[in-house]
Amino acid sequence: MTIDGTELMKKLISLSKRLGYVFQSGEIYGGLQSSWDYGPLGVELKKNIETSWWDYTVKTRPDVVGMDSAIITHPDVWMASGHLKNFHDPMVDCRECKGRFRLDHVKGDRCPECGGELTEPRDFGLMFKTKMGALEDESATVYLRPETCQSIFINFKNIVTATRQKLPFGIAQIGKAFRNEITTRNFVFRTREFEQMEMEYFCLPEEADKWFKYWLDQRMKWYLELGIKEDHLRLRTHDDSELAHYASSCVDIEYTFPFAPDGWGELEGIANRTDFDMKSHMRESGQDLSFQNLLTNQKIVPYVVETSGGIGRTLLAVLIDAYREEEVEGRTRVVLGLHRNLAPIKAAILPLSKKLSEQAYEVFELIRPYFPVQFDVTGSIGKRYRRMDEAGTPFCITFDFDSLEDKQVTIRERDSLDQIRIPIDTLASKLSDLMEHGWS
Fold first, then answer.
1. What is the CATH number of the domain that holds 41?
2. How many domains does the chain have?
3. Shortest CA distance to 305 belongs to which of 194, 198, 188?
4. Alpha-carbon distance values, 329 to 53, 326, 333, 359, 416 (Å)
5. For the segment 225-276, what is each residue's pLDDT rounded down to a tens digit?
6. Which DSSP symbol is given to 55?
7. Across-strand partners of 270?
């Protein structure tokens, strides 16, 4: 069933709250704009995305290592990186409805909300500023990091010394970043507090283009492995006028977000940052961050290829891509067709009758050590199936009255609705096989 984009977002936001994926932060006090809390299912989906990224980018590779840096960062870092000078957006206000907009989000000189007259543009700093320590003067000023990559650059020498990595190699981290965005909207797509998955790949300057293309290909493959449909993704190359001050080239991986003005919104950016950051920190700190090639005894300031994506946007794309409504036996069935590796609940144990709860719970205890599973006895078996379909659970396991005699249960697959009956003592191994290879 085709669903209008606006209607789809309304349904998805409602479903996210009802099932425990995402809640409005501070809702009992009216809600805090652009702040969202991840509920029991949402935090599991988020962790599964993080684990998938970490495994793909770090764990399975010998040439990428990880780190986890502080959120409050030395203020000189942002002087060297250019953020204090360049991290501003031109902002305009509507004189009629008092709306506030980034200038690059406005076409013409009229308000996009009400058509009213706009003010002259003025600069708006995007970094969150606070004070550290007992003093309240300017010397105590620090900033919440607006990105996670600068901490990687300033720790380059430490990590080379600790790991003895040779060029080319990458440093990756997942962590919170903060940007005081002028406008925040579209659920978790644009928020002031968000989590990034960033990897900086250090390489010889003459090999930067090669590695740029390599990581662009790798990042696209990862999104496809999450189960996102290929025709819902595209690559968009930045033209010279929109390149960041540190980049010689940049390509965005975009997704067909239903609220995006032209139908596409950014998921991740892959950029050739050249040696801008390394040289900037060397200049500001007075420290030598070059890499010494022991074979040639040459010192090299490496180029950096960056992959930078947001967990919130990835989670949103996964949910949008997975949501569908279909007619089954004359009734509408809502399904989150999540990839089995991302699904927060892998299987649900459903006794056909409450009279079977005790014996069915023994099956639940049998497989609980191996998979995230739920036990559900509330409502009719049909309602429980539909509840699990909405939650994205790949497999439902029904314990019926015959199970008392034949010691078997029925596994129902979410997408095909096919069923198989297997012995209880093989259930854990069968689910493991299904999780690895899928339903066939």
1. 3.30.930.10
2. 2
3. 198
4. 39, 10, 9, 31, 14
5. 999 999 999 999 999 888 887 889 999 999 999 998 889 999 999 999 999 9
6. I
7. 251, 307
User: Could you write out the DSSP letters of every residue in 21-42?
Assistant: SEEETTGGGT--TT-EEE-HHH
Q: CATH no. for residue 409? A: 3.40.50.800
Instruction: Pull the structure tokens for residue 95.
Output: 């004189």
User: Alpha carbon of 59 to those of 45, 212, 335, 410: distances in Å?
Assistant: 19, 21, 32, 36
Provide the whole-model pTM: 0.89
List all residues 6 or more positions away from 211 whose beta carbon is below 8 Å from its beta carbon.
168, 201, 203, 305
Beta bridge partner(s), residue 101? 92
Q: Is residue 80 part of a domain?
A: no
pLDDT digits (tens, 9 = 90+) for 398-424: 999 999 999 999 999 999 999 999 999
In this predicted model, what pLDDT tens digit does every residue of 351-382 receive, in sequence order?
A: 999 999 999 999 999 999 999 999 999 999 99
Rounded distance, CA 180 to CA 119, Å?
20
Q: How far is CA 172 from CA 95, 146, 179, 226, 314, in A?
A: 45, 16, 20, 19, 17
Q: Which domain holds residue 58?
A: 5-73+146-319
Quick one: pLDDT at residue 32? 86
Question: Is the bond leading into 258 cis (omega within 30 degrees of zero)?
Answer: no
Highest mean pLDDT among 3-12, 78-87, 316-325: 316-325
